[in-house]
Amino acid sequence: MDLETQVVPASQGRAFRMRAGQFARITNTHGNQVVDTWAVAASDAAEVSSMDHTRSVNSNIFFTKGMSLKSSRRRSMLTMVADSARVRHDTLLCPCSADLYQQLGCTAYHRSCTDNFHEALAQVSLEHAFTPASLNLFMNVPVGPDGTVDRLPPATTAGDHVVLRADMDLVLVLSACPQDITPINGAARTPQNVAVSITDAFSPEEAA
């Protein structure tokens, strides 16, 4: 059964409850939007997605189709079963925060993925003591031979999407990243909405 397609508004965060075996289709509606992504176990909010364990188990610094997002207990939380753009999603950069924007010169409050994570959890009556590292869907962060990283606009186009399968009952947290100072959300530096639909079934056509 398909659930209604919902929107994560630009610069905002949202939380979605998922049962094991359900699928989340996350659509980059405008093509330029990075989506910071977390998973929180439904059985224990202390068990959260872990980039350290994800990189270790997958033996890769990027996240691509076929890989699983691991928890702080090294359990599989989400598996990427489709990626229309066939890109490498970032696991290295931190979710943006108030401190980051202050260092970038902001003197007034600026929304952040860190705040979005905690606000989204509050929407489903959950809280977490800290902000875990995020899986950064659609973020284009090439790594040089010397280990340096760059921050480039997403290599995606309007309508590109990924499909994630829940491997346990969990809360999926998404942030339409508010970054409008660097080009991480595109050369126009303008955050945009993203679309999310949760389904009970996955069609192979969605991999196209």
Give a brief description.
This protein is of the alpha+beta class. It is 12% helix and 29% strand. It has three helices and twelve strands; from the N terminus they run E-E-E-E-H-E-E-E-E-H-H-E-E-E-E.
Would you kindly provide a written description of the structure presented here, covering whatever features stand out?
This protein is α+β, with helices and mostly antiparallel strands. The chain has one domain (about 5-25, about 30-205). The protein contains three helices and twelve strands. The protein has helices at about 50-60, 100-105, 115-125; strands at about 5-10, 15-20, 25-30, 35-40, 60-65, 70, 75-85, 90, 135, 160-165, 170-175, 195-200. The chain has a six-stranded antiparallel sheet. It has a four-stranded antiparallel sheet with strand order 2-11-4-9, covered by helices on one side. The protein starts with 5 loop residues before the first strand and ends in a 9-residue tail after the last strand.
Which helices and strands occur, and which strands form pairs?
Blueprint: E1 6-8, E2 13-18, E3 23-28, E4 35-41, H1 51-58, E5 62-63, E6 68-70, E7 76-83, E8 89-90, H2 98-103, H3 113-123, E9 135-137, E10 160-166, E11 170-176, E12 194-199
Antiparallel strand pairs: 1-12, 2-11, 3-10, 3-12, 4-9, 4-11, 5-8, 6-7, 7-10
